[in-house]
Every structure is written in structure tokens, then in C-alpha cells.
Write a structure and sequence with these properties.
By secondary structure, this protein is α/β, with parallel strands linked by helices. It is 44% helix and 18% strand. The chain contains 27 helices and 29 strands. A 4-stranded antiparallel beta sheet has the order 6-5-14-16. Strand 5 and strand 6 (183-185) form a beta hairpin. Helix 16 (546-556) crosses helix 17 and helix 16 packs across helix 19 (632-659). The longest helix is centred in the last third of the chain and has 29 residues, at 856-884. The structure holds one RNA strand of 77 nucleotides.
RNA sequence: GGGCGCAUAGCUCAGUUGGUUAGAGCACUAGCCUUACAAGCUAGGGGUCCUAAGUUCGAAUCUUAGUGCGCCCACCA
């Protein structure tokens, strides 16, 4: 006993078993294996990322499924890797350059990219090491990276394939222009801030009749030189008569049409809005809808350009705004000024408002690609867990917009497009072209932009396995089994992988998509850096151990949805681990150094042992069912119940009787059953809690019914068909358990000291009294009974408490402890409860429609139940009368 | 504003095609240092299954409306 600590110390074992697994090579999947394949692709974290709780949950779920399938004999490949994360990495590197007193533009593109590579080598991929602490059994030999030569080659290939099929085109779009940095920035670098501004109302006179006109309302009067329409709601009575006519833009004296569009809100402002398609995202959309001209009125630095009239030219946009208002006042066109608080997009970098700017971008045509992806979901070939996400997925795909794949960054895959200075045409190809494919000129310039990071990660099911080459890896590991990811990226990533899967291979990249829960704090707020409400997984792994963290995460998290988590929750996992450890200590103590135990012999095994064995097989069955449906938290709960409630609370307690005695065959059999079931529990627990289960499993004596490979992670997962079952005996023991619970309850009610032994009398049929006779030693030990009498003719003794169950009435004489008043009120409440049930059942059975229409089994069940409850009721009444009288 | 979803014990949630007395974990209460574990054992209290109407022999479960909440997308000139 002394060789075991009273608590499990994870620090002693985690490193040890991790190394054992690594040395065993069991993480690695063979491409030429004869076993069935099971592949999961890790959602590649940003190479800049640090492990957070969301990763913790997401990867624990993946590891559980992988370990479960591996133990079931599958050739499991869990592909790890990272994403080059264009924006995030570039921002990190720029930050460090800033601290060195230099900048991206100063270094130039080539040197900057060099810096990015250096940064990645030094700081990147830390999350990969952190995943190992969690116990993630990834195929580490296959670790992939979206900027590696292999994956970059795949990106190039898919670009060229799509281009050659006419699915990539160049189009115009508004980008977020930073007038200080004179560069476009990504959406992620734009922060929206509330500012106090004004809403100005001013008049645009009607063409040919300056007396008439419309009053528009705007927050950005300086863009008026780029106006190409004025829009009103089609049903707005105030303006209906003007639709189709022209108004004059003041100062530039340009005629623009009044158009009708649903987008306009009659009740906002004046109900009339100026449209500047080149300087506002909504106006841009409307410009496209109505085929309006796009007029850019600004220079790259945000000053007004030559299109604007003389006094405004070269003024900064905010100076121009002031002057516009001044001039409008002078011209008596300004009607009124309202203060207006509204959101303005700011550049996160330079802290100035961004200016939407028209520019050429590359797009992927999505409509055709989406078709098979839609079909896959509709036909249920592609399934979502929980299924409610299917609608979201379909809604997006059915209204899909073309995908803008160019990003104004340097870090990433530079767009493989070359512009010819001579003929103006573009060239592309798998190799960098040395001459224009149209005019053979060598005056080529590559597009400055890079591809969206998702344009490389949508190939994740393919490129890490060697695509476009038809490698053995690709043949074996594509498609994967299930994708475990966060619902936020259903469009960005999930749907796109499906589309490219069909485009390249004509197949789904995965059949199941599981969305894990979002982790929140106890107030239901998402974990976020800015709130600082997150839990650091590494900290809790240090404190409680990886097994505790894994167990707690999945037990708290239902499929989908949200999980409210606090650091104290991990104590629950820790308690469970400790319980397992102590069961192990107890068992090892009783085994007394034995290296092996006897084979199970059903002829000798006692009733509680058979029940426990049966519980194991039942749990193995339901856990498989839950895992199959990705209901991890339910599966883990079943494991908890088996371990704690069944094995420890009942199994070990009942076994003490045999274990305390001399070394008989009975004792050997009880030990055999305990070892067998405990090993079964370790195997069931291995996917969830790999470290403690491995430590224990390695030390358990060999049981003839379990094989013993080099590691639990490659041992056979318990299969319900192979496990012993004792349906009848299990049912019998459950009846005994029920009786024991009632005796304990009665004792507590009478406040009988736990150490005092009592007698018990049970009125029941012969079958049940025989059963009780066989179980007397356990009833005695577990219920504190020193004399048991059971049978049909048992009379009610004096001064006793009574309890009823299915087919039996229990009398426990409690003598001095009996409090008549209390017992009377308890019995009255009990009688009332049973009466209510009886009444309900009678009502049901007296209803001719019920008897006529309900299924036969339901009617029979109700009849039998009524009989049972009536029996209980009469026993209770009898006792109540005797106590009252 | 558009789309989707949720509402069951104090909290987090199960409840499988409508059918036993609606369950679990945590929390709470009481009694126990019973030699594996006080990070424990035993027992217990606690629910008009959001509201209203409907379908049905029968509704937590199905339908409709209302209320409250959440998520995603788009955001107001």
C-alpha cells in the first residue's frame, strides 16, 4: 500500500507515457496499411497562435475520436499543422520591426518576407508543442504548413486550374484604404468606432427647374463630387414623382438621376440619399445594381483630386468637408445640420478613418462550385452535428457571392498573375513565366497582392497528402472521416473545402462535420483577449493535469452550443481522476503483488460480480452509441457513472465481503471480476484520459481475458459483443440494491446511528425471499442489518418503519428510535403520493378510448403497474392504521 | 434589418419515432473520520417542463400565436 500516493500526481507520469507513445511510433499512420482508414484533419491554427481553451476543447474531441478508433483497429491519421496566417503574421513581424526602428516599406518586399520566415522559425508553431502537452495523438511525422513548398505548389495548381476554366477573373471592388500608410488594409485591421458627427441636409436642385429639387442627408458631404445618383425609396410618396428625373450636383453642375431602391429608408434623414459608388460600400453595391458611373474624387493620401472643382482640389478630405459646408451655406443650399453619433471605420494601424477605394481585385466564380456542395447537404451525404447548421450552410451557398481572393499584404502566396507592360494582357502558369503568353514580351510584372489565407487552407484535405500528385498518402487518407471545427468558420472554411473537394476530386472531403461548443465565462461572454476572461489551458494542465483538463472540457461541453466555464470546474475532473486512482490503490492492495489473476468462472462468480460485469458491457454499448453520434459529453458521463457509481460505490463495497476473507476460489473470482472490469474501465477511459489510464493499465495484473500489447493506446477497445453479459443476475442484484437503499433510507429517517445493527423483515413471494437469502451477507454489510427474515407469511413486527417496493414490503423494527408522529406524517405523505399514482392509472384504464386506442403493451404495462401500486398502497395504509391505532 | 436556433431543478444540461412516478452532474441540507478515497460515504429537499390556445385516449415531446434569450450575416446615409 505504501508504494502508492494517496493522490494521482500527473507530473510523474505525463512526460513518461508521452515518450513511450512517441518511441512506440503509434502516432504514425502507414499509407500502405491493410486496416481501414480513419482520418481527421486538425483545423490548422494560425502559426502565430497560442493554445487557448477553444483549441483545448476542439483538439480533445479530435483526440478522443482518434484514440477510440485507433483502439478499434483503424489506421488512424490525425493530421496536424499550421496556417501561415497572412495578416496575423505580417502584423507580428511589423510590430517587431517597429521596435527595431524600421518598417516593412523601408525593408522592401524581399527582405520583409525573409523576416517573416525568420519570425516563423523562431516563434511560430508554438501551439504545436502545446498540443502535445494536451496529449494530442497526431501523426506528427506528417505535420503540414500552408506555406511549405508542397502546399504552396498545390495553391499554385488550384489557381491555374480555376483560371484556365474561366473561374478566376479580375473585378473592381472597394478596399479599405489607409490614406496615411497609403496602403489597402484587410477587414481585420479595420475597427469600427462610434464618433460624434453631423448629419447635413442640403438641396440638389432639379434639372431645368431650380425652384424644385431634393434635400439629401449625408455625413460625408465632401464626397459629393463623386455622386452619380440620388436614391429614394420606390414607395415614398414625397419623391415618387421625381424618380427618373435629374438633379444637379452643386459646384460641379453635373446632372445625376433620381433612382428608386428598396435599400433607402424613408424614415431616416430626409428619405433621400446621395449615391457615391466609389466611396461607400453600400453605394458601391447600388452603383452596380443601377449601372451607375464610379467616380473617384480622392488622391492616395486622402486629399481631393483633380476631378473636384478648383477651390477643393488638393485639400485634405476633412478640410474639404468644412469648405463644402461653408460653400453650401453661402449658396443657401444647406437646410439644416443635425448632430449624429455613428460608427466610422478606423484603421487599426494609423488610427485614421479608412477611405473606401476602388481597386482591381481577383475573384473566384462560386456559383458552379457551390452546386455539388449544396447537393451533398441536401442528399444528407454531408451531415452536420448538430444538424441545425445545415440550414445556415445551405442558405449561404444558395446565395453565394463571388470570392475575392486578393489581399493587400506581402506575407502569403503572391498572386501568380503577371501583367504585360507591352500588350496589357495577363499571364499565369504553374511556373513563373519569363515572357508574356500573348505577345512574348519580357516586360512582365507580377501582381503585388497575395492570396487570401483561406485560399490555401481550403486545400487542407488534399495538399498535405501530396495533391496534385496522386500519392499513396492521398489515396489512403482522402477523404477524411469527420471535421471537428468551430461554427464561425462554416463559410470561410468548411463550405469551401467541400467545394474544392468536388472540384478537384469529385468527392466530399469529409462526410461528417461536428461543431464544437463555444467556450464562455460564467456570465456567458465569449473568452477574449480584450476582456481577459479566458482560462489558460497550459496553466490548468500544470495545475490539474492533462487528463483532468480533457475530461472537464468534454464533460461540460454538449454538442454545439455554449459552455460556461470557470477555472474551478477543473476540480471536478480532478476529483474523478482521484477517485480512479484510489480505486486502483484499493485493488492493488487486495491483489498483494499478484502478476496474474484467474479466468472468470461463471459458476463461481457471485451475484454482485456478475452485475458489475454486466454493467461494463452495458456501458461499453452506450458509449459506442454516443461516440458514433459525437455525443462526447454523454459518453463521458456514462463512463463516470460506471466508474464511480457502479464500480466504486457498489462493486468494491460489495466485494469487500469476499476480499476480507481467506484466499478461497470465491475470493479469486471476485478479484478476477474486479480486475477484469477495472481494466475494461481503463480501456474505455483511455481515449478520454490517456495518461492515468496508461499508468494504471501498465501496472494491473494480467487478466487472461485481455490481451496485453505494449501500450494501452493500441490495446483493443472493449466491444460489447465480446464482453460477458448476465442479464438475469444483473436484474436480480438491482432488486437487492433497491431494497438496500430503502433500508438505508428508513434508517436515516429514524436517525438510527450508522453503527447500530437492525433486524429487517420482508414480506414477499418465495422467489424474492430466496434471492434475499442468498444475498444476506451483502444486505447485512451494506444496509447494517444483523437479522433478516423474508417470506410470504412475514407478519408486521412492533414499532417498525415500513417501505414498499415492487412486490415487497419491508419492515424495520427501530424500537427506541421510532418517532410516532414523524413516522405518521411520513406515511401519510407516502400514501398520498401512491394514491395519486393509483388514481391516475385507474382514470387511464377506465377510459374506454385509452383501452381501445393505445397499443396493447402500454395498456398491459399500465395494468401491471396499477396492480403493483395498489399492493404498495394497501401495505402503507395497513401500517398507517396500526401506527395511528 | 436578414437568417438560424434555444427556453426542463439554484446552475449546466439529458430526455431518442408522443406512452411507467420527468433524470444526471454541480450546488444545497442532514448524519457519518466505516482501515481506497473527507478531493470521501449515506440519505434528503428542490421542477405549474416560459405563457396561451390547439391536435390526441394521452403532450416536456407535435401545431399556431405570444414573451424572453442567444448566435451568424449585413449594417443606416
Amino acid at each position: 500500500m505504501t508504494q502508492f500516493d494517496t493522490t494521482y500526481d500527473h507530473k510523474k507520469y505525463e512526460k513518461k507515457w508521452w515518450n513511450h507513445w512517441k518511441e512506440g511510433g503509434w502516432f504514425h499512420a502507414q499509407a500502405d496499411s491493410k486496416k481501414p482508414t480513419y482520418t481527421i484533419l486538425i483545423p490548422p491554427p494560425n502559426v502565430t497562435a497560442r493554445l487557448h481553451m477553444g483549441h483545448g476543447l476542439n483538439n480533445t474531441i479530435q483526440d478522443i475520436l482518434i484514440r477510440w478508433k485507433r483502439m478499434q483497429g483503424f489506421n488512424c491519421c490525425w493530421l496536424p499543422g499550421t496556417d501561415h496566417a497572412g495578416i496575423a503574421t505580417q502584423m507580428m513581424v511589423e510590430k517587431s520591426l517597429e521596435s527595431e526602428g524600421t518598417s516593412r516599406t523601408e525593408l522592401g518586399r524581399k527582405k520583409f518576407l525573409q523576416k517573416c520566415v525568420e519570425w516563423k522559425d523562431e516563434n511560430g508553431g508554438m501551439i504545436i508543442e502545446q498540443l502535445k502537452r494536451l496529449g494530442a495523438s497526431c501523426d506528427w511525422d506528417r505535420e503540414a504548413y500552408t506555406m511549405s513548398p508542397q502546399l504552396s505548389k498545390a495553391v499554385r495548381q488550384i489557381f491555374v486550374d480555376l483560371y484556365s476554366k474561366g473561374l478566376i477573373y479580375r473585378g473592381e471592388r472597394l478596399v479599405n484604404w489607409d490614406p496615411v500608410l497609403k496602403t489597402a488594409i484587410s477587414d481585420d485591421e479595420v475597427v469600427s468606432e462610434e464618433v460624434n458627427g453631423n448629419l447635413w441636409y442640403y438641396r440638389y436642385p432639379l434639372e431645368g427647374d431650380a425652384e424644385q429639387g431634393v434635400v439629401i442627408a449625408t455625413t460625408r458631404p465632401e464626397t459629393m463630387f463623386g455622386d452619380t445618383a440620388v436614391a429614394v425609396h420606390p414607395e415614398d410618396e414625397r419623391y415618387k414623382h421625381l424618380i427618373g428625373k435629374n438633379v444637379i450636383v452643386p459646384f460641379v453642375n453635373r446632372a445625376i438621376p433620381v433612382i428608386a431602391d428598396d435599400y433607402v429608408k424613408s424614415e431616416y434623414g430626409s428619405g433621400c440619399v446621395k449615391i457615391t459608388p466609389a466611396h461607400d460600400p453600400n453605394d458601391f453595391e447600388m452603383g452596380k445594381r443601377h449601372d451607375l458611373p464610379f467616380i473617384n474624387v480622392m488622391n492616395l493620401d486622402g486629399s481631393m483630386n483633380e476631378i473636384c472643382p478648383e477651390p477643393f482640389q488638393n485639400l485634405d478630405r476633412f478640410e474639404a468637408r468644412k469648405l463644402v459646408i461653408k460653400k453650401l451655406k453661402e449658396s443657401k443650399l444647406l437646410e439644416k445640420t443635425e448632430s449624429n453619433r455613428h460608427a466610422v471605420p478606423f484603421s487599426d494601424r494609423s488610427k485614421v478613418p479608412i477611405e473606401p477605394r476602388l481597386s482591381k481585385q481577383w475573384y473566384v466564380k462560386m456559383a458552379e462550385l457551390a452546386k455539388p456542395a449544396i447537393e451533398a447537404a441536401k442528399s444528407k451525404e454531408l451531415k452536420f452535428y448538430p444538424p441545425s447548421w445545415e440550414k445556415t450552410y445551405l442558405h449561404w451557398l444558395e446565395n453565394i457571392q463571388d470570392w475575392c481572393i486578393s489581399r493587400q499584404l506581402w506575407w502569403g502566396h503572391q498572386i501568380p498573375i503577371w501583367y504585360c507592360d507591352d500588350c496589357g494582357e495577363v499571364s499565369t502558369g504553374l511556373e513563373d513565366p519569363s515572357e508574356c503568353s500573348h505577345c512574348q514580351s519580357s516586360n512582365l510584372k507580377q501582381d503585388e497582392d497575395v492570396l487570401d489565407t483561406w485560399f490555401s487552407s481550403w486545400l487542407w484535405p488534399l495538399s498535405p497528402f501530396g495533391w496534385p500528385e496522386e500519392t499513396q498518402d492521398l489515396k489512403t487518407f482522402f477523404p477524411s472521416a469527420v471535421l471537428i471545427t468551430a461554427p464561425e468558420i462554416i463559410y470561410l472554411w468548411v463550405a469551401r473545402m467541400v467545394m474544392v473537394g468536388y472540384f478537384t476530386k469529385g468527392a466530399l472531403p469529409f462526410k461528417d462535420v461536428y461543431f464544437n461548443a463555444t467556450i464562455c465565462d460564467k456570465q456567458g461572454r465569449k473568452f477574449s483577449k480584450t476582456l481577459g476572461n479566458g482560462i489558460d489551458p497550459l496553466k490548468v494542465i500544470d495545475q490539474f493535469g492533462a487528463d483532468s483538463v480533457r475530461y472537464t472540457c468534454v464533460s461540460l461541453a454538449p454538442l454545439g452550443g455554449r459552455v460556461k466555464m470557470a477555472e474551478t470546474d477543473f476540480e471536478a475532473g480532478n476529483k474523478f481522476i482521484n477517485k480512479i486512482w484510489n480505486a486502483y490503490r484499493f485493488l492493488m492492495g487486495k491483489l498483494d503483488g499478484k502478476a496474474t489473476v484467474a479466468s472468470l468462472n461463471p459458476d463461481v462468480l457471485d451475484l454482485p460480480s456478475k452485475w458489475l460485469l454486466h454493467e461494463l458491457s452495458e456501458t461499453a454499448k452506450v458509449m459506442d452509441q454516443y461516440f458514433d453520434k459525437y455525443q462526447i459529453s454523454e459518453a463521458v458521463e456514462a463512463l463516470f457513472h460506471l466508474t464511480w457509481r457502479s464500480y466504486c460505490d457498489w462493486g468494491l463495497e460489495a466485494a469487500k465481503d469476499a476480499l476480507d476473507g481467506k484466499p478461497t476460489e470465491q475470493r479469486e473470482q471476485t478479484l478476477s471480476a474486479l480486475v477484469y472490469v477495472f481494466e475494461g474501465i481503463m480501456r474505455l477511459a483511455a481515449p478520454v484520459m490517456p495518461f492515468i489510464s496508461e499508468e494504471i493499465w501498465q501496472n494491473l495484473p494480467a487478466h487472461p481475458a485481455w490481451e496485453k500489447p505494449d501500450s494501452l493506446m493500441i490495446a483493443k477497445y472493449p466491444k460489447v459483443d465480446d464482453l460477458p453479459k448476465f442479464v438475469e443476475e444483473a436484474g436480480q442484484w438491482k432488486q437487492v440494491q433497491d431494497l438496500i437503499s430503502h433500508v438505508r433510507s428508513v434508517r436515516t429517517q429514524a436517525k438510527v446511528p450508522p453503527k447500530d445493527k437492525l433486524a429487517a423483515f420482508v414480506r414477499c413471494d418465495k422467489q424474492f425471499s430466496d434471492l434475499l437469502g442468498r444475498c444476506e451477507k451483502w444486505i447485512s454489510r451494506l444496509a447494517g442489518i444483523n437479522a433478516l427474515a423474508a417470506g410470504e407469511g412475514i407478519a408486521k413486527p412492533e414499532k417498525c418503519l415500513v417501505a414498499t417496493g415492487k412486490g415487497w414490503t419491508l419492515y424495520v423494527p427501530v424500537g427506541q428510535y421510532l418517532d410516532f408522529e414523524k413516522e405518521k406524517s411520513r406515511l401519510e405523505a407516502e400514501v398520498k403520493r401512491v394514491e395519486r399514482i393509483v388514481k391516475g392509472l385507474e382514470g387511464k384504464l377506465n377510459n374506454p378510448n385509452f383501452v381501445k386506442k393505445a397499443p396493447k403493451e402500454v395498456v398491459e404495462q399500465s395494468t401491471a403497474q396499477l396492480e403493483n401500486m395498489q399492493g404498495q398502497l394497501s401495505s402503507l395504509r395497513e401500517n398507517l392504521e396500526s401506527i395511528s391505532g
